[in-house]
Amino acid sequence: MALLGVLLLGLAVAAPAQPSPALTFRTLTAAQGLSENSVYSIVQDRQGFLWFGTQDGLSRYDGVEFRVFRNDPQRAGSLSSNFILSLAEDQQGRLWVGTGGGGLCRYNPVTGRFQAFEYEQNDVNGLADNFVRVVFCDPQGQVWAGTEGGLHRFVPAKKHFQRFVHAVATEENLRRNSVRAITQTPNGTLWVGTGEGRISFLNRRTGHLQPDPRWAAASAVTCLQPDARGGLWIGTETDGLWYLPATGPARAIGRRPDGPGEAIRALFLDRQHELWVGTNKGLVHYQPATDSFRTYQHQPNAPHSLPDNVVLSVFQDRSGLLWTGTEAGISSFEGRPSAFAAYPEPKGPVWAVGEDGAGRVWVGTESTGLICYDATTGQRRTFRHDPRDPGSLSEDFIRAVCIDTRGRLWVGTQSQGLDCLEPGATRFVHYRHDPAVPGSLSEDFVRTVYQDPKGRLWVGTEGGLNRYNPATNDFTAFRHDPQDPHSLSNNFVRVVHQDRTGLVWVGTGGGGLCRYNPVTRQFVAFRADDHNPRSLSSNFVRSILEDHTGRLWVGTEGGGLCRVDDAARGWFTTFREPQGLPNDVVYGILEDAARNLWLSTNKGLARFTPTNSQFYTFDTRDGLPFDEFNAGGYYRGRGGRLYFGGVQGLVSFVPAAVRTNAVPPPVVLTGFRKFNQPVELDTSITVRRRIELAPSDYFFSLEFAALNFRLPEKNRYAYMLENFDPDWVQAGTKREATYTNLDPGTYTFRVRATNNDGIWNPTGTALTIVVKPHWYSTWWFRVLISWVLFGLLFLAYRLRVRQLLALERVRHNIARDLHDDMGSTLSSISILSQIARTHQHNQRTEQATALLDQIGDSSRRMLDAMDDIVWTINPAHDSMEDVVARMRSFASDVLEARGIDFTFRVDQSVAGLRLNMRARREFFLLFKEAVNNLAKYAQCQQAAIALVYEHHRLVLTVEDDGIGFDPAAPAQGGGNGLTNMRSRAAAMKGVLEIRTAPGKGTVLRLNVPLRS
């Protein structure tokens, strides 16, 4: 191996050392919704929103969208000016906004409104002027503002300002009290920087600003930044960067060619106590520990470079992400370069990679041959195929690289067999398939080269598996034999691995996973079975790894990652995209020192922790130079560095240097809409906890956001409406939920989210939603309805009881009639029959005949009465048509038998009337009594019967031209006819009138109230 190293050093061409990776800036501009591109100030509020102050408005950012606040003279509570110079949040969560010309504004997050504090002439307790360059909220809860006229402290109880100026008369220099910067050191001292160039502190005893004598007045002080030691970093207008320690003289920083520019616009000390300096010549990173600078500037052809060289503000959010405001937008970036380093060459696909004992990296490419990198010297050597040189590489398309324990370099090519470079040699030895030579390579399409722990070399081809025999310098081939179930399952061999028990595992392209036992010389195949969830997930195996515990992991094409749980039973556990894998094609698997598995896919890299089955995914958004990787191109170096080859080159990294975001994101509601129209609430939706909806608000939407700004496009959401959704709705990246036609009631809307690395905020946020019922669904209306229903039921009950009583009375009357009329008639018939029988025995024929005639008359009367009863109780005869027909028939039978001419007139209005059973019986029997009396006693020649309906009354008239009678005299025959008729009329609540006199005829008029 040493000889090979000497050879490479002798042949190597000098290559420049790879530069350290640059920072990746992700820029947002007005095109994405920022109010304007010149960002002067940045702050993060307690909810987690980021606020950007620009030349034309204030922008609030939730990771995806901006909400812009501007001055609107027609809207109360808007900003007083659109020129935003400074932002700060107080201890109550209110945002203070310093404007250029509009004074100081205070934003209330509960109401979403601004309160303006502006200069008023002759107001000694107000602002000195409306140009507020800086606003600062100290840890003690006090709010300070700097204007051209001095330092101001807001007095909340009186809602006015206390002003502090230098004791020296201001006429000497108009800029002496122009406060440009405010800060506080850890000892509680409040410092200001002025436009005159002074650094002054507030002397609380005298109530004046007192210049620090160690600082000589120079150009205007633009910014101040304290450190943990009590010192001050000072940015100036034209004199660069300075440091003023807690004790001792001030000193200039960076007066060198590679130092910051002269105009300092912003200073920020990050969590690593490293200083970020915004200048008019770019962003400068200064590390005090090493006194080193690095400048980041705009690169015209680099989309992820700084967007502009004029840097106006720098800030670090709670997750550690840094932000810089420029004159061309706002950019976020990580303070450290990406851990994923791309090799400068090759630019094309990489299919193989390995590392030799000297730490050199060997890279097999698709079109540029074999490349060797020496990281220690920065040198690179390329091996290419030369048709004129038989000892050169046999082909430039390299599919496999292996450096064995003897230092030999084995190279598998796409279609020209296997090459070997011995230590110290300058020419490659070629191994190829030759059908005429026993023991030659089984196929020239080589896909993998592997040396097992026992030193045996295995070569996988598209024509079977080969084991190299060093003693005879030939190969033993293993191929698929359809007649042998214990042969290799498929000849397309992609990967080989020998486990710690000595079994050899072979991954094939279409035949699944095979296990070879060197003792029995038999293969056992494990294949995918759609009916068995514990089987191998895919028959196309790309990679195999044995972890530190001896467990086997299998990467498949289309089936994700499989863990071998029980080889004897063929049981596997599969992890795929639903479990967090970015893609189900797993090309390579490597284990790092922390026992995590790293997987290369078609959609980036994944880090998998077997102990908790947690996936972290990484793609170009995380700093990877590309997302799509290739089979075979993966290797773990001796120092723990991992290598992965892909479609655009080679990526290497130290796993421990890869940063993940473990901070769960705050989750907030950002919008409320009805029928897709935004709704302005009296309380901001971000802090509101309850909303009431009218019955007409049957279509509404809620918008929400996870306030994680590190790759926010990877945030994921889940929401649920309690009492409506049965379970959490996995919304993916969708940031809104819509509901329609909710039943009246109380619901709780909950939403939670992950950050870019899949860390959930399990609590999220919640909103109570009360859907009010329609008036007819309210409790009071239901009580009213219940009482109405109760009343109706009671009324129906009373009516039913009344009907039953009426029916009972009818039944009683019928029973009485049956008992009285029928009983007495039947009794008389029985007595007459016995008497007639006696007369017959005694041969008194005439007397017997008279009695039989009397019995016949009684029977006919009884049958007639019985017929009346049956007709009365039949409901089919309720209509007046049936009553009129029976009346006409009875009148005809009785009157015509007496030779009496009669007319029977019925008005048409009577046809649709109906009589209940009792009224019908009483009405007919009264009519019958009247006709019988007329026939028996009137001695008339003419009769007229009329039936009309007028004024809701049924009127029956029976008139004759007979002899009449005296109503005051006793009734003829001593009967009760008139009395019965009057009784029946009363039962119908009717009025019976009889107009008669001896010799004058008779008129009977019955008037019965009736509804049609």
User: Which structural class should the secondary elements be placed in?
Assistant: alpha+beta
Order of the strands making up the biggest sheet: 59-65-64-61-62
Give the CA-CA distance, first to last residue. 123 Å
Radius of gyration: 54 Å
Relative strand content: 35-45%
Question: Mind describing the biggest β-sheet?
Answer: 5 strands, mixed
Number of strands: 70
Number of helices: 6
List the helices and strands and how they pair.
Blueprint: H1 2-11, E1 26-28, E2 39-44, E3 50-54, E4 57-61, E5 66-69, E6 84-89, E7 95-99, E8 104-108, E9 113-117, E10 132-137, E11 143-147, E12 150-155, E13 160-164, E14 179-184, E15 190-194, E16 199-203, E17 208-211, E18 221-226, E19 232-236, E20 241-244, E21 251-253, E22 264-269, E23 275-279, E24 282-287, E25 292-296, E26 311-316, E27 322-326, E28 329-333, E29 341-342, E30 350-355, E31 361-365, E32 370-374, E33 379-383, E34 398-403, E35 409-413, E36 418-421, E37 429-431, E38 446-451, E39 457-461, E40 464-469, E41 474-478, E42 493-498, E43 504-508, E44 513-517, E45 522-526, E46 541-546, E47 552-556, E48 561-566, E49 571-575, E50 588-591, E51 597-601, E52 604-609, E53 614-618, E54 629-636, E55 642-646, E56 649-653, E57 667-674, E58 677-678, E59 690-693, E60 699-706, E61 717-722, E62 729-732, E63 736-740, E64 745-754, E65 760-771, H2 779-841, H3 845-873, H4 880-897, E66 901-906, H5 917-937, E67 942-950, E68 953-960, H6 977-987, E69 991-996, E70 1002-1009
Parallel strand pairs: 59-65, 66-67
Antiparallel strand pairs: 1-28, 2-3, 3-4, 4-5, 6-7, 7-8, 8-9, 10-11, 11-12, 12-13, 14-15, 15-16, 16-17, 18-19, 19-20, 20-21, 22-23, 23-24, 24-25, 26-27, 27-28, 29-56, 30-31, 31-32, 32-33, 34-35, 35-36, 36-37, 38-39, 39-40, 40-41, 42-43, 43-44, 44-45, 46-47, 47-48, 48-49, 50-51, 51-52, 52-53, ...
